[in-house]
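Hi all, long-time lurker, first post. I run a small reading group and we've been trying to get comfortable going from sequence to structure in the token notation. Rather than ask abstract questions, I figured I'd post a concrete chain and ask someone more experienced to write out its structure so we can walk through it together at our next meeting. Sequence below, copied exactly:
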Amino acid sequence: MTSVMIFIGLAGWIFLLVAVYLYFKEKKENKSKTIKLNIKEEKPKVVVIGGGTGQSVFLRGLKHYTPNITAVVTVADDGGGSGVLREDLGMLPPGDIRNCLLSLANIEPTMSEVMKYRFTEGALKGQSFGNLFLAAMNGVYGNFETAVYKMSEIFAITGRVLPVTLEDINLIAHLENGNSVKGESNIPNQVRSQNTRISRIKLEPENAEPLDEVIKSIYNTDIIVIGPGSLYTSIMPNLLVGGVVDAIRNSKAPKLYIANIMTQPGETDNYNVVDHIKAINKHCGENIIDIVITNNEVLPKPVFDIYNKDGASQVLLDQNQKQILESMGIKVIECNLVEIKSNYIRHDADYISSIVVNLALSHNYGNEK
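-- Answer (accepted) --
Happy to help. Here is the structure in token form:
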């Protein structure tokens, strides 16, 4: 802990100076671009709710289609470097926030690589410098919301990133075998080791309050996007914060769920698209999703086998599932969502973003294919 505190202290002062320089440099260089942007046709407002790698990948594509992005991010992470800082410094976990900030950032590639750097030795082994940077900002300003806002300014991000709540929350998973597991990082491992499934996820405390700006954004957006991301550990922690589901349901914007390409071992084993929707409905009530975007591309066998060795399978839609979704009043958009790089499967952020923006502009999702 002492090493972390010393490093954060030094990082706070050194990189605040660097950050101020980058901020004014970017501000000067982008001034003309900003003026041009303001006179263009208005771009749709998009709220993206989630966390983890899926959300940050999607945001990286979305920022090229609209500047009016609000990323609502879970703060239930308690593992890895984020978990260490959360425990040692009593701050909210920075990892998912950091990833979203970097996805929406307009900074030089070198600075981006520095922020992603993970230490390989010593007391800071495994810790991301971006996490330490955000921790330093939190220490300087004494408030996590302000720290995220200031970091957003420094990185000249497109849109904004909001923690879903400022309260210290933890996930509790109630399993089908009757046991309970506390902690986001423990849940998948315990589900697998106990050979069971998740029955229900809850927050501790259950009455966590959302950030006011989160609720305002949901009411004032043109489309609400849930996912992609881990169903129980990235998406649910946002939906379970008080008032969030009510705001989503009462918002006039279409509600879109981006289905995962693969199941997540220890979390959604053997789930299909309908299973994901039913899990959301179980926790949030009926009629929260209007549209589902799902992948219909069968993966190449060599790539599939890599994931299948860890117990993952493809999340694909069949005719029976289509009929079930239609009976629930949910429109389905099927397309090839897959992007494969170095045998690593990701969502095609650019393609999905184009679909989302078109839906937001038209609201005529029944004709979108």
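A couple of things your group might point at:
The longest helix spans residues 2-29.
The mean pLDDT is 88.
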